[in-house]
Amino acid sequence: MGAENTTISIQELFMLMFLFEIGSTTLFALGIDAKQDAWLVILVALIIGLAFIWVYTELQRKFPEQNYIEIIISILGRGFGIPLALLYAVYWLWPAARNLREFGELITIVALPEESLAAILFLFILLSLYVLLSGIEVLGRTSLITLPIVLIFMLSIFILIYLSGVADFNNIRPIMANGIKPVLKTAYPNVAIFPFGEILICSMFWCYTEEEKLIRKTAMLVIILSGLLLSFTLFFDVSVLGDYYTSVTRIPLLRIIRVVDVGILTNIDIIGIVIIFLGGFYKMSIFLYGVARVVATVFNVKNYSRLLTITGFFLLWVAIVFEPSYVFHRWMTPFDTNYFYITFLHIIPLLLLFINWIKERINILSEG
Amino acid sequence: MSKKMKRPLTIEEKKRKDEEEVLERLEEKYLNDIDINNLKVYSSLEKNLVYLEALFSKASDFNTRKFKLGDEEVKATLVYVQGIVNKGFINDTILRELMIVSRNQDLKLSRSYSNLIDLIEDRLLTMGTIERRDEFTTIIDDMLCGHAVLLIDGYDEAISIPIPTREVRNVAEPETESVVRGPREGFVESIDINLSLVRGRIKTPDLKFESFRLGRVSKTDITVAYIEGIAPQDLIDEVLNRVKRIDIDIVNESGIIEQLIEDDPFSPFPQISNTERPDGVASSLNEGRVSIFVDGTPFVLVMPSVFVHFLQANEDYYQRFFFSSFVRMLRFVAFLVALLGPSVYIAITTFHQEMIPTKLLLSIVASRAGVPFPALVEALIMEIAFEFLREAGIRLPKTVGQAVSIVGALVVGEAAVQAGLVSQAMVIVVALTGIASFMIPAYSFALGVRLIRFGVMFLAASWGMFGITFAVLALLIHLCSLRTFGVPYLSPITPVDWEALKDSFIKVPEWFKNSRPSYLVKDDNQRIASNVKPSPAKGDDEDE
């Protein structure tokens, strides 16, 4: 259970991060503010995401044996580091709770309208605790099976939609009708942060892999592949639904699944539900793991399993109490991204790298 | 006081009490020279016999045969337990040699032998193995395992001659794992025969059999078999450690050992497989696995066994690869059907009716129209009835068993549908599920699947597909965290091992399976020489 003897293979790391990236992103019409150019927005954001991957992995390279929180404390010292680490815990708790709540609500909306939300959230947390108590490497190993399933499902959705003949690629045109400005504006900070910036939480377990040199390559590959997949999804969303419907519909992916009509394959919603479930499960579990690990690192907690359990149920409580509805989420998103997320995901890591660089300079100067 | 008296004696205490009793009786006869702590063989034959007879009192199969040895008429006695020793050997070989041949031999001339026991060992007993014993504990153990023990007056040593015998079944085709193509021999209850069957298939001195006895009362012979150099040393040590740690009164079947050495006793999935087939054991040993033979049962344990092993049958390797791969994938589908069949039906009919194509939906609705129960209850009734039939069929004599299945399947099934208790669709689903669970070659694995099915059914009835996904993910997590003797249970799927995946859901042609599975074997991986891929003959007889 302890983190000391955990090892994650680079394959597992890849799968985990990929699932994390797919996570909830398949649900939303990301970058739809740029209308039919949403798919382009993703590609632009992808490049920004890659740049920040360089920042995150550079930090990891400087301190290969430490997780992100330990790196913060190493750079800033305990006095500044610990408060910041706790802020991170609070910040990460927020997307974790949102994620949990979102998926619970989506499940109730699309599949089980008469079931109690709390019960579903409880099952979700239970499952997540089960896997995290078995260790993050177990989560990694399960992802080796679930990622291919998710990918196969997504690809088959695209193929089936194409075969159904409902995709109208004219919906994509004209490309960049209003120039490049709206594309850039949506790409940063919104899409560059969600989903690409959020991968920072994975640096809580990057230190467990034995092939440190491959972390950067793997993370970049994940960003590129998931970005392409996402861009492809939006391309299909918009070409099937048009930009207006894509922006107003609740879950574009499910909406386009509903139009599939090939032979006896007519109502394959269930595939969508499985994708939502798996993506949400992995994303939420990784966030929960991150939060628990931050607390464990800061307070040097011995009984990690108890801490994890408490954090899990606290998360459940937060998700039920502090999140009034799914609509609230969607309304809240730009606010979150523009103020909170950008600080924690882009500004602080950059500052950390800068401070560390200065410290290194000073050391060199004082030695030389 | 009374509390203390009522406590049953522990085995140690009882043993000591018995010993004291015997020594008391000895004391009555030989008041003078008794040493309480001395459990060594006395040089007085009479004393030894008194001791043994006292120990084996009321054991009617204990036998003593008194006779005179050689010309000098030395008193000697052969003691043994009737029934477990070979009577023919005793009558025709041992006693003949000791009573008749020993006279012809000029014992007086053999001056080089001051010790009669040496003489007997070197010149008289024409047996493959004999052992010299001087402690009563070993003598008694020997006798109980089918040795005849020769005691000679004047010597404080005994000769123990192993001539065990028992009634054994003929080697026959195993009933639990029959094949269309493949060897027709199966293990029997005798461990010696079982070991010889495996030795006959692996003719290398690297094949090791480490034997010991287990069980305070049963003293069962256990043999741990492995191929040195192929099986990893830490695996062998771990198996031996776990087996030797066992302290139990009786070991009747290998299943008892299995339950005492498995990694996770609370997992519904078995982590050690069992087989009745020598070819199965041989190929497992060659894959670097370890097997445990237990005397008295034809079921041999093989470990570590991972998920894919339970969906494989020996015959897969004997048939050509197209069909084997097809069957293996079919089995995997069967595993999913057996696990999820009724649950998916419940989930779809209760929550996700829109998923069913309209025409099919209409016919399902029509068949369910008169059924008073919700789908879960309907499914539970049928599933439990099916489990009844299955268990009833196993325990009953074969002839009656068939009658039960006819009554159950045809009469009850048909009548239940006609009476409107269950729908036809449900009968089909349950029957399919049942057949699918028979597709799983490993019975112990199928048992786990049968049990989990019920849990998934409840989840499906409560939360539909969400419940099923929950159950599947939970199972997946469990399988991923499960290890058997250090090997992850889902190897080679995750952690992925491409080479070994060639022999998992599919079976590649023999010439393409280059190495032994690397999640089991660390060194010596080479399985087949390169370039053995068959191809039509080139050159000579071609008309080029």
TrEMBL record, chain A:
Query: Which residue ranges traverse the bilayer?
Result: 12-32, 38-56, 68-94, 106-133, 145-167, 187-208, 220-242, 262-282, 303-327, 339-358
Q: Name one GO cellular component term.
A: membrane
Q: Name one GO biological process term.
A: spore germination
| Highest rank taxon of the organism | Bacteria
Note the topology in the membrane.
Multi-pass membrane protein
* PANTHER family assigned to the protein according to its UniProt record, in alphabetical order: SPORE GERMINATION PROTEIN A2
Q: Which family does it belong to?
A: Belongs to the amino acid-polyamine-organocation (APC) superfamily. Spore germination protein (SGP) (TC 2.A.3.9) family.
Please state what the protein is called.
Spore germination protein KB
